[in-house]
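I am writing to request your help with a piece of structural work I have in hand. The matter concerns a single protein, recorded as an amino acid sequence and a row of backbone structure tokens. Could you please explain, in whatever detail you think fit, how the structure tokens follow from the sequence? Thank you for your consideration; the sequence and its tokens are set out here:
>
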Amino acid sequence: FSSKSGAGRKFSAPLLVAGVSAAGAASYGVYKAWGSNLTLEQAAQSVQEAIPSAAVSAAGPPEAQPSVYSQGKNHALYLWINVKTSANACQVARAVSKLQSYVDQVSDPKTRDDDDEILAGVGFGPNFYGRVVGKTKEPYTYAHRKGNLGEMPSSSGDIFVHAKSNEVSKLFELGQVIMKNLPKDSVDNFEDIYSFVYQNGRDLSGFIDGTENTADEDDRKEVAVEKATGGSYVITQKWIHDLNVVGNEKDKTLEGWVGRQRADSVELSRKTISSHVARMTAGNQYQSPKPFQIVRQSMPFGTLSGGAGLFFIGYAASPQNLDYMLDRMVGAGGDGHCDDIMRITKNIKGTYWYFPGAAELKKLQ
């Protein structure tokens, strides 16, 4: 090519720009424009106009919200909201769909790093989402379940926010910002729970939590995200542990109920069909296959005076993954065996949510 130096330089031949892969119409537009006598500024503008077209044509699958398959932090906020029937559901949905802007208020995107970032997502109960958007690809109704060792009550819920941060104060502040921005008099009741890391990643029972989660991000995405939408079906349950049983029962008994060694989480080669590991897999054989998987984001919560346990939250690409595990815990679906984990903990609250994909959420704004 030939050119003159300075801001007014002109090009008399097309250029090959390293790093720009503009295919089809986009690449043709760049070639055509740069084949003319353009100033440097005009040529740069042509590239900027053409690149978005190429980017759109090469767009990947729909993205999930930040909380869905990202790794955990030291603390989490679980904000469970019931909306008044008289409230304008569309206005409420519009307010919470701006969740990322609330995150940015609390944690400045210009200065934050991995240590003080907040990873957050918002989900909706089936009735609320049906009023605002309509049906999801799969229905996600949380049924009341009951077995010989306890029950799993079906709780109401319209909006649920899951946020993760290494600073619990930022999560508290985020909760304040969210509640402040909801339409006036729209909330019937809500509960905000703040979790923590216990003994480097153990449940309050002393067992390592989340052993079955895959470490690979792509694998977690495969398990947690609905490919067509970027959405995720989510279970939340509030479990209160019997810390007296946990503290006084023999390790061997507790390990038999869980199906793993307490110290290192190694799966027991011999375990009962009612052990927790056996209920979550296809049976009590060693390393039985897992017909369904979820991405667990559960953490301990609570106080000694008011009750403590595990806030269980799991993300899945289909509600079938969730139903399978819950049915197995209460002996539904055939064999009648209940999960021995319910000998040390009690479920007091639970439901399902749909966390829309990032693009779906944006449409609510």
